[in-house]
Amino acid sequence: MRRYARTVVAFALATSVVTGTAGWVSGDAQQALTGPPPGTTSWRADRVLGEELPDPERATPAEVAASFDGLSTGERQLLLLRHPSVVGNLDGAPLELRYRANSLALAAAEDPRYRSLATPGRQILAFDPRGRGQVAEVFGDLRSARRVSVVVPGSDNDAGTFDRKVAAHGAPPGMARTLHAAAGPGTAVIAWAGYTTPVGVGVDAATGRLAEAGAGRLTRFVEGLTADGLPEPAVFCHSYGSVVCGLAAHRLPATDLVVLGSPGMRADDVDALRTRATVWAAKDPTDWIDDVPSVRFAGLGHGTDPTDPAFGARRIPAEDAEGHAGYFAPGTDSLRAFAAIARGAATEEGAAR
Question: What is the pTM of this model?
Answer without folding.
Answer: 0.91
